[in-house]
């Protein structure tokens, strides 16, 4: 066993483990015993938690990922390299990294064509989604080619937001956000606010957001959103809200060029389609239950519905956007918890309390 592995064998490896629906426990997790030639040994620093984690906790599944045995949560990590395999050349001990959690095979048709995010193997090796153990543990290993060094001016806390930011970068690339466009982002959680920031960085002229949470919309407005719309779930009508948004854009507005849907809520998906002008695009980022949508309206108006699956070579640009100062993600981090208080962190995120945006768990 190499020295770096020997050095941690008597160390504490406290982990947040989801056993089944509603059963979330802090417990010691087995320490890494092997380090492959292409892997890094990592010591956790920060890990963001999101709606996906809460859904796994409260429902026992999200999309096609089902909790069948105890596994470690956490898919938005930053860490410090404390050991490297014999073939690793891109990183060294002491480097701080953002970690891309899903590991593709790099051999299948999708990988060979450059769309490794669609690799079926990666669904079994997407760390933090069952059955692959995630990063809410003190020590773990990860392939070095999916660890990205953080520049000196990017903190580990910011590094923990790179995974979500990379998803957003991929979404904006998929719908081809560009100069002069009007964009609506449905949902002003961390991903939604980052969608607005990235859309602006990509050249969008006006970006608007919707949400049920007024404090999140207030933050979006403070960060430069051109308009925000509070959704009242009790009185919400997707077609009427679409009219309201079009009117706010301009008297003769035909709708937004692009809508990016980040909630996964049926009524919000319908709004995104209705508010998008003919010939426009709707990016589907949020994952919810299967829903009924106005497909005939989208088809007759040639509104393209574009799926967004994880990340495809987007980490480097996400890090560059932070490093260059084009994006400031620090205001999104509203709460931090020690790993020992991680159950409290999950309770807070689930509560929907006003003022809660991004929650980090740290080691």
UniProtKB/TrEMBL annotation:
Question: Domain Enoyl reductase (ER), which positions?
Answer: 22-361
Q: Which GO terms describe its biological process?
A: sorbitol catabolic process
Which protein is depicted? Sorbitol dehydrogenase
**Organism, scientific name:** Medioppia subpectinata
Q: Could you name the domain of life of the organism this protein comes from? A: Eukaryota
Query: Tell me, what is one Gene Ontology molecular-function annotation carried by this entry?
Result: L-iditol 2-dehydrogenase (NAD+) activity
Which PANTHER family does the entry link to? SORBITOL DEHYDROGENASE
Q: Where are the transmembrane segments?
A: none
Q: Which Pfam families match?
A: ADH_N, ADH_zinc_N
Cofactor dependence is on:
Zn(2+)
Q: Please provide the record's keywords in A-Z order.
A: Metal-binding, NAD, Oxidoreductase, Zinc
The record's comment on protein family reads: Belongs to the zinc-containing alcohol dehydrogenase family.
In the record, what lineage is assigned to the organism producing the protein? Eukaryota, Metazoa, Ecdysozoa, Arthropoda, Chelicerata
